[in-house]
Amino acid sequence: MKKYTPEDLIKKSCDLLKKRYQKDGHHSVVCATVLAKSGKVYTALNTGTYQPSVAICAETIAIGMGHTAEKDFEIDTIVAVRGMPSYPISPCGRCREYIADYGPKAKVIVPASNKKGWKVMKIAELLPEKYEKKD
Q1: Residue 131 and which of 1, 19, 85, 109 are 20 to 30 A apart at CA?
Q2: What angle do CA 69, 71, 72 make, to 5 degrees?
Q3: What 3-state DSSP class applies to 61?
Q4: CA distance linking residue 67 with residue 54, whole number of Å
Q5: pLDDT reported for residue 20
Q6: How is domain 6-126 classified at the CATH fold level?
């Protein structure tokens, strides 16, 4: 099984986004790559519309691809990139919830604090005190 580095995952996202980028700013401006605990990789584009409230984030779609393909899907690492040239971005609040649900110990590649480069954080650092349903 291939070992993927954060650089590999960033490159996968950047490569697909470069092929599908839409300059109108409403369609396919973000691409996410998920490395599952199984070692499989899922890469997806956002599905934007001119009505932003119905757009679906790339992270959500990539997670859905993994969940559909694998019975015991769990996220190991995830990254989303945006723009041309592409650069890592931090997941929105909704995506942080999805990531935490499908990878409680997931690593998330985010922009570095100095806005140069990137760093890896645990999802628990990005979403402390996560909401949990109590039965």
Answers
A1: 109
A2: 115
A3: helix
A4: 21
A5: 82
A6: Cytidine Deaminase; domain 2 (3.40.140)
Provide the token pair at 24.
Answer: 């109108």
Q: Which two tokens stand for residue 74?
A: 């769990």
Per-domain residue ranges of the chain:
6-126
Rounded-to-integer distance, Cα 58 and Cα 30, Å: 6
Q: Which two tokens stand for residue 67?
A: 């969940």
* Cβ–Cβ under 8 Å, residues 60 and 66: no
What is the model's pTM? 0.91
Listing DSSP states for 9-58 in one string gives HHHHHHHHHHHH--TTSSSS-EEEEEEETTS-EEEEE-B--SSGGG-B-H
How far does CA 17 lie from the centroid of its chain?
Answer: 13
Q: Are 78 and 108 in contact (CB under 8 A)?
A: yes
Task: Report which secondary-structure segment, H or E, holds 122.
Answer: strand 118-122
DSSP letter for 129, please.
T
Secondary structure (3-state) at 72: coil
Q: What is the pLDDT of residue 98?
A: 96
